[in-house]
Specification:
This protein has 326 residues and is an alpha/beta fold. It has one domain: Dihydrofolate Reductase, subunit A (3-Layer(aba) Sandwich). Helices cover 27% and strands 24% of the residues. The chain contains 8 helices and 13 strands. The strands form 2 sheets. Strands 1, 4, 5, 6, 7, 8, 9, 10, 11, 12 and 13 form an 11-stranded mixed sheet that branches. α5 links the parallel β7 and β8. The radius of gyration is 19 Å and the shape is globular.
């Protein structure tokens, strides 16, 4: 294990690099083409800097039923591919990366979660654009959100990853008893790394409740596709922030949702902006809570249906499909 000073220097260098890239990025203004945000119970996020660029506030759902509000953030190619070794090759550009993905979608986040295959040694999830860092601070939130990892086997080595070695930033590892047994000896000297282990088919909802108990109210989930699908199928996702690029790219047949019960979605907001390659589309999609009743059966279905029925707002109408048509 490196010394604390060595890890701090590595983290400081990472932060400086990310802040510099975000500050220098050219961000294009967006134009709104659909805005149904008033039909839903949404929290506006923005200030005098972000609202002119985003053409209005960014929106997020509120927590419900003792659970954190969890949203997904994805960029896809024109044909719906999200898989790529380098997400930048999907073609959404700097505006998506710095204003949305590493920006407005994380301003309110108490934690950012990813699957273990998505993270790397230099991965650290935060807000980097200076104006959005200030907005997060104005909301009374810590400089960095907590880091969270979904992993069944916990094969990652904390000695190799920056995110496990920043004492001021909590890390939550969502796993099972097998994963806990594997990971615990490696994090004994890291009290800021907390294992949330639950076994069984209801593991994710129970883990989400434990995160809420720890003060995590808003969670940004950034992939990969299997982790995102597991969260959707567990009935935990309320919002999907989906950016579609104008180019063909990515690994074929890699949609953001890979399960068998595609959730019902409705566009609360749709915006566009222009790039050299064409028009990029951003959508804030709301997940129909009634979709979750189709994923479980018996008593669980009745219980979850009762919990989610009150969450439908506005005219209550949703459609089922991978992208919105409204």
């Amino acid at each position: 294990m490196r010394s604390e000073r060595s890890w701090q220097a590595r983290f400081d260098e990472l932060c400086a690099r990310k802040i510099r890239a975000a500050a220098q990025a050219a961000i294009s203004p967006l134009a709104t083409v659909v805005d149904r945000s008033r039909e839903f119970d949404l929290t506006p996020i923005g200030d005098a800097w972000s609202c002119p660029l985003f053409d209005g506030p960014f929106f997020a759902s509120a927590p419900r039923d003792g659970l954190p509000a969890i949203h997904l953030v994805f960029v896809q190619s024109r044909s719906g591919n999200t898989g790529a070794e380098d997400p930048e090759t999907l073609g959404a550009g700097a505006t998506d990366q710095h204003l949305i993905y590493e920006g407005l979608s994380r301003v309110l986040a108490d934690a950012v979660v990813a699957g273990s295959t998505t993270i790397g040694p230099e991965t650290f999830f935060s807000v980097w654009r200076p104006e959005l860092v200030r907005l997060r601070g104005a909301l009374g939130l810590p400089r960095h959100p907590a880091q969270a990892v979904l992993s069944l086997n916990c094969t990652m080595d904390p000695d190799l990853y920056v995110m496990f070695n920043v004492p001021d930033v909590p890390v939550y590892v969502l796993t099972n008893s097998h994963g806990r047994a594997r990971l615990e000896p490696r994090i004994a000297a890291r009290p800021w790394v907390r294992v949330v282990d639950v076994d069984g088919p209801e593991a994710l909802p129970q883990q989400a409740m434990r995160l809420a108990t720890a003060g995590i109210r808003h969670v940004s989930a950034v992939g990969g596709r299997r982790a995102a699908t597991a969260l959707v199928d567990a009935g935990l996702v309320q919002d999907v922030y989906l950016t579609t690029s104008p180019i063909e790219a990515g690994q074929p047949n890699t949609p953001w949702y890979v399960g068998s019960a595609q959730p019902g979605l409705r566009a609360a907001v749709r915006k566009i902006w222009s790039t050299e390659r064409g028009e990029v589309v951003f959508e804030h999609l709301l997940v129909d809570p009634r979709s979750y009743g189709m994923r479980v059966s018996g008593k669980d279905a009745k219980r979850r249906s009762a919990l989610t029925a009150a969450s439908v707002t506005g005219d209550g109408s949703f459609f089922t499909g991978s992208t919105s048509t409204a």
